[in-house]
Amino acid sequence: MTYNAELWGGKTLPQAQAATLTSKDAVSADTVAAQLRSKGLHVKKTKEFSGAKKGAFLGYRGADAGARVKAGSTVEVRESAGAGVPDRTVGKKAKAVTKTFADMGVPVHYKKVLVSDSSKTAEGTVVSTSPEPGQAVSEQQPEIYIGVADKQGSGIPMDIMGRDVDDVASELESKGYDVSVRKRLASKQYIGKVSGSQPAPGSVLESGQSVTLFQGVDAQGAKDTFIQSADDTGDTASMAAAGASTDDVASGRWCTKGGDCITLGDMDGEEDDLQDFGVVDGAKSDDYAMADSPLVVCDAVQQAFCSQGSKDYLIQGDTGAFELMPHKAFTGFWCGDTFLSRTSPGATQYCKAGKVATTDNPSDVGKDTGGKYRMSNFFVVAPVGADLDKLEASGYFDKSALDAVGKQQKVDTDRPFLLYRDVKQYADDEREADYSSKSLNPFLPYNSLWGKANGVKDASVAMRPAPSDATAYYLCETSDLDWDALEDADVDGAAQQSDKQSDKDKKQSDEQSDDEQDKQDKQSAKPTPKELTPQQIRASVDGGDMSPIAGRYCLKDGSTCLTLDAKGNVTESGKNAMPLSSDDPNSATVSPVAEGARPSWDIPASVGIEFRGPDSDYRCGSERGYAACYESGTFYSEAEITKPVNFVYIFKGADSEQVKSIAQSMPEPDYVAPDSTKPFIKLLGYHMNVSPSDGNVFYLTE
């Protein structure tokens, strides 16, 4: 009796039923953990990917339900993390993981990925996954892709990573591809070797397609991409650091261990003569952040090189690190919510007591009062080989920030990483500073040469956060494949598992088959999408059926594609052109914009159909929805409001002049009209759109 009462002989583990894919009323891991703690046992919860709902109890590690354990001992409780890709999936045989993924409860696609050397990467081995190992599937795209090594096919082999650049270039050129090489930051194992490519390793290529190989560089190699000759002699004594890297060396996707990501790369420049390297995705996007401005490493605004005689810009120092700052931040200041440039000739506006004033008297410009400097986006990049100890000892980082990371795991210096200035770590009054014509922007590296000449004290704001494994954004070096373009792989066990997974839906499918057949019979009499008139397409779309326009749409250069299905779900692959949703930058659900709705671009009915994401994608502060952001009692500036994706579908054969005018602004200088023999999509911003052109529209691919 006393044994059963657990007064001696240990404690009995609760008889909780472990959740499975088909469980409806699964017990939560938290419930089981609470029961264990009530017995005086210690609990360690570990999350595992599974087909059971998130938080469900999956069982005990190393013990069965009802087993007796020592009083006061630690019991490991397995908790479902939902569907995802387990760690260490890459490198296993695909046939060895089919059971694991069949039990995930989401669609799983096995795809052939080309490898060149099957002696090093055996055929049938998992070489890539989406999501990446250790990541869960998203609600917007609840499916898993598994890349399986295959030696047959045309394209860029997945196993070019880490190989000699010249060897890989020669192999690709021998197959008829046009190959170029650029320098990019890379992990220690890839320095001097192939560290990636565009299109990504594993991608399928068309005959004669252009390929860019990335050669990995460390701190010195990265600095060399900023070095340019100051005259025509080539004298090394006249070499100087320029504001921009000749290879956009820091391009790529950078992510923290917590899953926050920032993508740097090509973007639209502010002027034709400026580089277009900047923030593509992630980071703050409001006006103060200046995410629309190209990034530079120093004050090379109106000159070719960084200011000489100063070591305040990291690129000119000897730590190997460098900063990335918005070019725009060097050119002016804020007057209220308006940015006033002081580099543009003929300026007629100035700041008067914190408000913008217009004048015809040039002498008034410069007599600014009430202006402010504000924190913009700011990055510190640390390539492999950077001297972090020297950088920290220099006082570059705020002391409190260094103290905060003192007990955290140290940053992995075998991988390049960047630090993103966290405005949340600064008090409100630290995020802005007074402007005057003789002051320096304290949120940019201080230029001591200018300061000494003008009697200005160094008031630079120290960097927060300091480097640690938790604060670092590490460069992601996995391939971003266009999975839909890859051929299906035949994996032993995958088909059988798929059949088993589909059995549970078979009964429902059989019951619906007659209805589906009737629907198909009715649809067979309808014209095909290619035969539909604009009026018929519009009627179908307005009725909720987007099948007439469903398909894959790609930029002419193939760098980015949009896939639209019959239900209005749109996904993006390749280089990110525009975030599709606040929740998921690569997917959204769109619907046609009703005639007369506001806001609207008033697309002529004969030209195309405007689409927009859900109303809930309007975000302002903690609010959601157009009404909350624009029609409530609280004022939000445009910079504070994120908006749904917005695009226009242009009919095949639409009038070119009408198409040109839909952006309500002048076309680009070298404007080339889109090909009107095929339908296409043009993404729209909330203002300042350029006209649809051959280079910026997404054509329907056949």
Automatic annotation (TrEMBL):
Residues 492-544, 571-597 are annotated as: Disordered. InterPro entries: PASTA_dom. It comes from the Bacteria. Pfam families: PASTA. Residues 500-510 have a biased composition (Basic and acidic residues). Residues 159-213 form the PASTA domain. CDD domains: PASTA_pknB (cd06577). This is PASTA domain-containing protein. The lineage of its organism: Bacteria, Bacillati, Actinomycetota, Actinomycetes, Bifidobacteriales.
